[in-house]
Write a structure and sequence with these properties.
Blueprint: H1 14-32, E1 44-49, H2 55-66, E2 70-74, H3 87-97, E3 100-104, H4 108-116, E4 122-124, H5 132-146, E5 153-157, H6 162-174, E6 177-181, H7 190-196, E7 200-202, H8 206-209, E8 215-218, H9 230-237, H10 244-248, E9 255-258, H11 280-300
Helix pairs in contact: 1-5, 1-11, 2-11, 3-4, 5-6, 5-11, 6-7
Bound molecules: phosphoric acid mono(formamide)ester and norvaline (NVA).
Amino acid sequence: MTVRHFLSLMDCTPAELAGLLKRGIELKSLHRQGVIYEPLKNRVLGMIFEKASTRTRVSFEAGMIQLGGQAIFLSPRDTQLGRGEPIEDSARVLSRMCDAVMIRTFAHATLETFAAHSQVPVINGLSDDLHPCQLLADMQTFLEHRGSIKDKVVTWIGDGNNMCHSYIHAAIQFDFQLRIACPEGFEPDQVFLDKAGERVTLVRDPNEAVAGAHLISTDVWASMGQEDEAEARMQRFAPYQVNPAMLDRADESVLFMHCLPAHRGEEVSAELMDDPRSVVWDQAENRLHAQKALVEFLLTA
Ligand code: CP
Ligand code: NVA
């Protein structure tokens, strides 16, 4: 039997993704009712973090506990991963001990190499290229608040980064229009744009990009690993701050999302985080339930 991995939203069909969102909502409801549901008893998720994390680590760890299993946190600093043991060998060994492995890494190729040598599902917990787990939570959040996102207008403001790439995948898989407003030189990779075709458009002016939008999302201007560029990026991205006045130009039902962590006063104005149109806390909470649905799908389907 071939092992299913989740390195990208493109690893699932649109129907499977829709099923994951529905299941995430069900698992959230069960949890809120205090129902004990432990289909993953004795199952273990290994979690390799090459970069920092709050939400991804805690949501996977709490999620595994809630489903009756356990998660093991592995940092390259105190494992052989940081001392040069080949990815291939680490994958062979860890996948004989764990039932699934989540990896947060720099090079996306690390995930692909690990997955190619793993006997168990591998989950992308963020790479330099993609952040698909965050999109499961974002799409679940939109569904809960506004219903289907099909044919809606979504605007991505800021860096053409890993989150932006996953939004492009989401536009393909969930069938919405995506407008991307980014400064010149900070566009998403052309390979992602080519795949999306006319569903995705690049717009330089953020105010033009948000007109009539149903969802506006942004992210930090300097991602993990780009700390040296932070100062220079601050200047280039200043006109791309998302604020309440910008949301006023969007559809009246618009929602604001941010994957977090946020830099209030930079990519998002301080007050917007707590604006009634902001759903950033629901979004963060939904990481837990969306990923429970994902792990259940990968381990029990
Ligand atoms: N949004 C997100 O992935 O957050 P963390 O970096 O805290 O995991
Ligand atoms: N683009 C950000 C997302 C953090 C969740 C980063 O890669 O640092």
